[in-house]
Structure formats: C-alpha cells, structure tokens
Design a protein that fits this description.
Number of strands of chain A: 5
Number of domains of chain A: 2
Radius of gyration of chain B: 20 Å
Oligomer: heterodimer
CATH topology of the domain at 58-117 and 158-325 in chain B: Enolase-like, domain 1
Strand order of the largest sheet of chain B: 4-5-8-6-7
Structural class of chain B: alpha+beta
Distance between the termini of chain B: 56 Å
Shape of chain B: globular
CATH class of the largest domain in chain A: Alpha Beta
CATH architecture of the domain at 58-117 and 158-325 in chain B: 2-Layer Sandwich
Order of helices and strands of chain A: EEHEEEHHHH
Helix content of chain B: 25-40%
Strand order of the largest sheet of chain A: 2-1-5-3-4
CATH superfamily of the largest domain in chain A: Beta-grasp domain
CATH class of the domain at 58-117 and 158-325 in chain B: Alpha Beta
Strand content of chain A: 15-25%
Shape of chain A: globular
Helix content of chain A: 25-40%
C-alpha cells in the first residue's frame, strides 16, 4: 500500500511546527525520527513502561500509543521543553540533587509525569506521587529517590526550586 | 521503531457517518483512545486497511447526571470518568474500576467504549508474531486450536476489561448505532461467552453511550487482583452493588472479569436477599461466585489460584460494603 502522508501543524515546546507524517506513524517516532528530538525515549513501544511520556494539551500520554496525525492543532511539551536559559526545570534539578537517576532511560518520562503531577496538585503527597508515577517503570527499580526528589520539589526544599 | 501497517485514516463527525464509512469499507476499524488497538496492530494481532477515528464525534463525549440516571458518552476518557465527582459519589464501583485500568497516562487516552469493547486476552494470543508462529498460532488468529483447551471447539481468551463488571453490577444499558438505526441493549446482553466473538455488535455497529440508573440506598465497589499494582490487566476483578435494610440484605449484584470470555454476572444471588449476611450466607455467596466463573489458563497466574481468589475477593468486598452500609 502506498504511504499516505498528512500535513499537520502543532505547537512543540512553544514553537509552531508543521510537517508531513505518514498516517501510521506514532507521535514517538515522529519526535525521534522526523524531528530528531531523542529526549523522549523509545523502550517498550506498546504502552507498558511510560518512558515515552509527553504532555499533550496539558495531559500526559504515552506517545507510543498516539498517532502523530493526532498532534494536529494541539500543544506538545517534551523533556526538551523543560530547560530554560536560566537552567534546569526544578523537577529536573531535584532529580539531579537526589541522585534519582541510575541508568537514566526512564528519566524523561518520569520527569514529564512528575512535573505534570506537581503542576496539577501543588500539595502532592508522597502517596499521591507514588500512584501518579505508577505507569512509569524504572528498570533499575530506583523508585525511592525519585519519590524523594518529587517530595523535595513539593516542599520547596530542592535547591533548584523556583519561588 | 517497527513499521506500523499503513492504512487510510478517516475522521467522521457523527456516529451515523462513522457507521456508513465502516459499511463502505470492508477492512475498517474504529479507533478511540488507541491503547488497546495500537499494541495489537503492532503485534500483528489486528490488521486494517481503514482506521475510523472516533475522536471528532461530539455525541460520544460528555457525562450528564440526570435525576434518575447517568448518561456517559462512549468516548469519555477513563481519567475523566474516575475524576467526575457525581460518579465517584453515586456510582463508586464505576469510578474505582475506571481508576483500576492500566496507569495514569493510559487513562488520559483510553475511553469507556474502548474498555467495554476491549479485545479478549490470553497468554497464547497476546504475544509477538514469532512467538505465536513458533507455537503454531492459536484459534483466535491464524491457528485451529485453542491452546488453553486444545479439545474445545471454541476460544477461551478472557475478557479483561475492568469497567464492564462495575457497569454490570450497576445494571447499565448501552446505546448502539448501526446502519439500520439505533438500538439499546442491557449490558448483560452485550457480551457472548466466546473469546473470538465476545461482543453482540453486528459488523460496523458502534457503541455510542452507556446509561446507568441511579439507585438510592445502594452502595458499590470494585476490587482487582493483579501482579503489579498498576498497568496490568486483571487476574480477576470483582464488582459488587449492594443494598442493606437493617440487618437484612435488600439487594445484591456481583459481576466478575478476567475469569471468563465475557464479564460474568453471577447468577443465583437472589437467594441471599431478604436474609442477614451471616457466615452461611457468605459461604453460599462464595459458592455462587465459583460456579459463575470459568477461569482458564489465560494468564501466568494459575487457574487454581484464580478460582480460589475470586470468591474471596467477592466475599471481602461484599463484607466491606455491608459493614459500611450499617
């Protein structure tokens, strides 16, 4: 079958993007292979692990389970969109400060989900963080320090926290 | 990443248009949240020449709470369902079941209709093509034999949706749109006990909405057994709706998932109604649950374990709701 390409336009990390994608291409493949944004990780490719988590219109989804054509008219934020000229995002900084990163492969998804949880619930408890991050698997099983980092951001104790 | 099968993507703006498109194209599939269909397409468990994206159909969206019932569009996400204050308050089993599906990011995409129409699952079916090929496939796709029950003429893949048992216990009905118009079915009539043809949908028919009656005085809940605390499909799931009148049981409905090719509504519970919920009644309840399920080797956890655990899950949930209703 001939490849059917569709033109889409959307906002990616605050910038307007327009490109042509095959209808069967997933958002994850578009980000990594078409746009060269390899911060979002491809691990299981079938929604089991959360490594490919991105924000779409303020909600976190598995980009491996979303067709790229569905990005049309929407607003995406990926891990590349978190850092500002002033430095790392507070959640990123807290992960660094707490040594929450082991092999690092789950980190972009973990951080996207943690950031989204904190933004939607500034008083996030440790238990709520645990429930909220349960779709993000860490193959090094390093969950404790991830939760420590999230807790530090919420309580404002991370040195990277913004006022 | 692996190449997805290519297809034509269509985006109708009404249920009628979607049904007409489906009828005009032989190998077409409806796409809602995609959390079930995309992994299956990727593994070669489904193929399609046409994908009909239901995301643009306004009718499928939204939750409306009326005086005596709740109307829920089939396109409502499980996250929206779980977060709706009216549903959490009036139909806790439904909110708990929606929250028990997969993980937080899946629930932002996955829909009510998709979970009700979830493909049946089995340890011999939900595998990669090389795995299935090495095993000479199975009856559900490309093979002749049910690997779970090789002598059987039917497929025993298990229905594993969490929301269906909750809605069965809550006595819900579904609205279906087809080329010949619309019809309404009790949810119990929506499922067949067959792993290959588990939905009472004719070709191209579309599940549009669910209606749940509000029953004052009833309480409800959902409990799920799985290996990990998230993402996993149920080894077994039990939903209960219960009414208590003083020291007597005034009403009881139980439905199970993951332990049969359809969500099973447990029969015979009326015998317990009008009586106190004592040890004898609970023992009888366990027997009725065991009689109503048909756990097969569809999961990595053993059949004896699931046969033992399901009645206990039901007993615990009934006991909790009974005590809370005191």
């Amino acid at each position: 079958m001939m490849s059917v390409e569709t033109e889409i336009r959307f906002k990616l990390n605050g910038r307007e993007v327009s490109l042509k994608v095959p209808v069967a291409m997933k958002t994850l493949a578009m980000l990594r292979d078409k746009l060269g944004m390899t911060g979002t990780k491809y691990a299981c490719g079938e929604g089991e692990c959360g490594a490919c988590t991105v924000e779409v219109d303020g909600r976190t989804v598995n980009s491996c389970l979303m067709y790229a054509v569905d990005c049309d008219g929407r607003e995406l934020v990926t891990i590349e969109g978190l850092r500002t000229p002033e430095g790392l995002h507070p959640v990123q900084q807290a992960f660094v400060d707490h040594g929450a990163v082991q092999c690092g492969f789950c980190m972009p998804g973990m951080i996207m989900q943690a950031k989204n949880l904190i933004e939607n619930n500034p008083g996030l408890t440790r238990e709520e963080a645990q429930r909220g991050l349960e779709g993000n698997l860490c193959r090094c099983t390093g969950y404790t320090k991830v939760l420590d980092a999230v807790e530090a951001v919420v309580s404002g104790k991370s040195c990277g926290s913004r006022p | 990443m692996p190449v997805m099968p290519d297809f034509e993507l269509l985006r109708p703006d009404s249920a009628e248009a979607a049904v007409a498109l489906h009828a005009s194209r032989p190998a077409s599939r409806y796409l809602a949240g995609g959390t079930d269909l995309l992994p299956n397409l990727r593994r070669g468990l489904a193929d399609t020449a046409t994908v009909i994206d239901l995301g643009g159909i306004a009718e499928l969206a939204g939750i409306r709470v009326d005086a005596d019932r709740v109307h829920i569009g089939a396109g409502t996400t499980l996250a929206a369902l779980a977060a709706h204050p009216g549903i959490a308050a009036e139909l806790p089993a439904l909110a708990q079941a929606a929250l028990a599906v997969a993980g937080p990011t899946h629930r932002e995409s996955a829909t009510l209709g998709g979970n009700l129409c979830l493909d049946t699952r089995c340890r011999y079916y939900n595998q990669s093509t090389p795995w299935r090929e090495a095993n000479h496939y199975c009856m559900k796709l490309e093979g002749d034999v049910c690997r779970v029950a090789p002598k059987s003429k039917r497929c025993y893949a298990a229905f594993s949706g969490d929301v269906a048992p909750a809605l069965l216990a809550l006595d819900a009905e579904v609205d279906i749109v087809g080329t010949n118009g619309r019809r309404t079915l009790a949810l119990a009539e929506f499922y067949h006990d067959d792993g290959m043809r588990w939905l009472a949908l004719d070709r191209g028919e579309l599940l549009a909405a669910v209606r749940v009656p509000l029953a004052p005085g009833w309480s409800s809940g959902y409990e799920k057994l799985r290996i990990r605390g998230a993402i996993d499909f149920p080894l077994s799931g039990v939903a209960v709706a219960l009414a208590r009148d003083g020291e007597r049981l005034a009403g009881l409905r139980i439905a199970c998932t993951g332990v049969s090719s359809r969500p099973e509504r447990i029969e015979g519970l009326d015998a317990l109604v009008g009586q106190p919920l004592d040890d004898a009644a609970l023992a009888q309840l366990e027997k009725l649950v065991l009689r109503g399920i048909q756990a097969m080797e569809t999961t990595t956890a053993s059949v004896p374990y699931r046969r033992k655990a399901t009645p206990i899950l039901a007993r615990r949930l009934v006991t909790r709701l009974w005590t809370e209703a005191a």
